[in-house]
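User: Can you help me understand a structure? I only have the sequence.
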Amino acid sequence: MPQIPVIDPEAIANLRALSPDDGDEFLREILGIFMEDTPRRITELHASRSSGDIETFTRAAHSIKGSSSNVGASELRAVAEQLENKSRQQGLNDVEALVAELEATFLRAQAELRKIIA
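Assistant: Let's start by predicting it. Here is the structure, written out as tokens:
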């Protein structure tokens, strides 16, 4: 099984192509929103897991999956998808390790995205 890239360069190229003459201003804005919003969704994962709110947990995982896909954070998208599917199918039992993996994966994605917009 091929390793999933932390950041898909094709997705970054596609975002740049949406506004090619702005010196990456659009790209910086989109990535900034992603890096600001994702920790909020991770906080939702923790809070909803603690309260047993499967619907909010699943929605937060789905949101991370979608936004990760939009910015090319492929590895993070894959982990978020696993969390979303697990919560839909099995509830919130045994999701702690996967949430921790998602957090670590987000930090890797964030570091790579910061290099891109530096």
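Now, to help you interpret it: The mean pLDDT is 95. DSSP finds five helices and no strands in the chain. Let me know which part you'd like to focus on.
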